């Protein structure tokens, strides 16, 4: 607001950005035909289409009209990311796309509260059906969603494959051609979410049920049922998995198409029926009707001499009667007779073979056509907006997908109706875009260059004018008594409209034209070109009559769908039904009213070639379509006129915030306010004009720059509103918080003060009780000292808990108070027992055996032999030698240790090995047995108290095998003697002597070993004949 120059800079930046983006996108052709330099040249127009088509740029604008060229291949431009790219974006900000048209219609509906419609037009095969599906997919993905809304979205999307299966077929020009017209209203609630829908269908091509041209097929559902249905379902329906078996499916000689997968399409249709809300019973009955049509096609007739006919295939009638739930005999009679009323009396008149076949085909068409109408009504029921209160406030986007202009080798009644419909749509397009443009500019006083265009109202009047139009003449010929025929209809046309400039017959044509026209044809000069129509079948297809008795049979059906399709009121209603052409004309009139009540958006579809090949662009075909779509006229209008126009009050209300003089309100004349606004925005004179009630803006980019400025302004306005609201909100919140904080503080301070007072009282009481207890601590337990004593006990127990011994060897223990001395001792024993139990539980068998040996050694040698303390930390081993038996064989379980043996004569030292077995001690010399001492003969063991390693093994004298006691010396004397004591069970027979040991030499003689203390170990024979041992003393006992 404060700096208009800054705003101008911003606008310039936005425009520059947009223009650079346009340049980048338009390297291959321009994306808006309005930007073509030579906009009046049809060649330049088609060349621009061709350039973009070659680069897979299939969409191009003419102002707000979207031109779409069918690529005949899948393009990666319909992903969710692409949808998000176009969501909520200005129409001209991104490249042309069907999503841009969809989003623009949606945003216009939301912002301007006006219903919208999207008119998709083009000839068969141009891609209209696919375009309508893309629009629905866009709304399904981008609109707000809830559980109910998601259900509606799913049903909207799933209605497409169902309607395509029952209403689309392969034609020469399109493998998925819509053979009916469809107008769908999508309803949106106030949030912009799709909440309902409604479908109107027009002129189903029922004749396709019984006949197809060469290279064409019947409706998709027949082939899908045969190819995809389960075997059990086919068995119930009496069908075989071979389309060639059914007469209604072989007329076009094209049962299979490479581009169509009937089996997978069947799965899609079955799933879609479930999503839409069809019950299993309804699906079964629907498929029964479809199967009955196939069986009807296989009903064969033969003629009698009298001229009447009879049925030769009773099996088919049985199937049909069962599937439709009607009486077999009644149905059979109705297919060969017709009921006539003469003078109030009903008679049954037999039919000849040709009449019976026609009656059969008429029944097939009636069943299928009415079932299709029921199907559409069923879908409408599932899509209906259930909230009656809000349904009146729901906004609507209409979507028109209707058959395109058709010109075949043989054009009949269906092509006449289809092309009449396209004439009406072209007339609507002319009125809404071309003629209305000029009239609006003239009404507003805007001067511009008029554009010449072809007004096809003259053709529409030729077809639909009362009393003189082709439809009126056709109805009159159908209803008049006498021998009316297709030829008499043609003659009457020549008499009535023969002078019309757009009507020609063989009779009225010049010589050149007669060469290419049949005598049973008439030609209409449509806006799209010349079309010859063959009148054969016009009257029958317009009457679309069904014999009364066939109606009666259908009314008696037990099939619940057929009972809704064939009402019994038809049998009593004597009023003549409207003809097919009149019904279609009235339906089109209603459709035009619906479309005129909405703001239209246009999608013009073009097919690049007749061969349905990707990348192929046939210029002649495209030029023809450009002509009949009126694209050049539309372009000339857009270039001569203005791309955007709005009433002053709407424009000012939307953009007044962009100018300080018009914001927040303008009190003067509206035209002055708009003039002030556009001057402030910097509009150039050639960019806009001011009419009597509206402003006209010539270039879309001017409007785009204004929209960008509005978006930026919205942010600043929103920021101010947010700041004001946040300030007020925060102040109010602060006052509430401050008051609450004061109240909470007062309450909390009271609690804290009461808590402090209570703690002080408790502290004083505790100190008083502690002092009194200390004073009475030596007295017996009484009220004065019980608190103190309990505290002392508690303190000791907590101290003990923190300082308990961790191992068996830890002997520390806190000193207990006098009152807990006995309890302390008990606890100490329990603790030690627990530690010992834990220790014992964790030791291994090997360590247990080691400890057992150490215990024996302790019992025998502790405080008795000098070198015992040195042996305590040393582990006893299993053996000190390689385990060798006296025979030289290795053996486990022996204890062996090297020893020195002193001879009985002279005490000469000999190196020997001592082996302890389970039953004896063996002395060997290098695996040679020297002496075996059985443990039973071992009286005892003597050893000195000094640190020497000598010991004597005493044996009994009665043992003749022994030569006397054995005097041995070992470096591991404690270990060796402990092993001997355990193996021989002689723990109590080990004698520890202080000064000397007597031993037996043999033959009753005794020897003495004297032990003395010295500085070092010395063993020698003394002069007195004794064995003298001098050993150092290691401990003083």
From TrEMBL:
One BP term from GO: actin filament-based movement
Residue numbers spanned by region Actin-binding: 588-610
Principal place of residence: membrane
SUPFAM superfamilies xrefs: P-loop containing nucleoside triphosphate hydrolases
InterPro entries: IQ_motif_EF-hand-BS, Kinesin_motor_dom_sf, Myosin_head_motor_dom-like, Myosin_TH1, MYSc_Myo1, P-loop_NTPase
Molecular function in Gene Ontology: actin filament binding; ATP binding; microfilament motor activity
GO CC annotations, alphabetized: cell cortex; microvillus; myosin complex; stereocilium membrane
SMART domains for the chain: IQ (SM00015), MYSc (SM00242)
Annotated Myosin motor domain residues: 29-711
TH1 domain sequence ranges: 848-1033
Swiss-Prot/TrEMBL keywords: Acetylation, Actin-binding, ATP-binding, Cell membrane, Cell projection, Cytoplasm, Membrane, Methylation, Motor protein, Myosin, Nucleotide-binding, Repeat
Signal peptide: none
Location of this chain's protein in the cell: Cell projection, Stereocilium membrane; Cytoplasm, Cell cortex
Protein residues bound to ATP: 122-129
Family: Belongs to the TRAFAC class myosin-kinesin ATPase superfamily. Myosin family.
Protein name, entry field: Myosin Ic, paralog b
Originating species: Electrophorus electricus
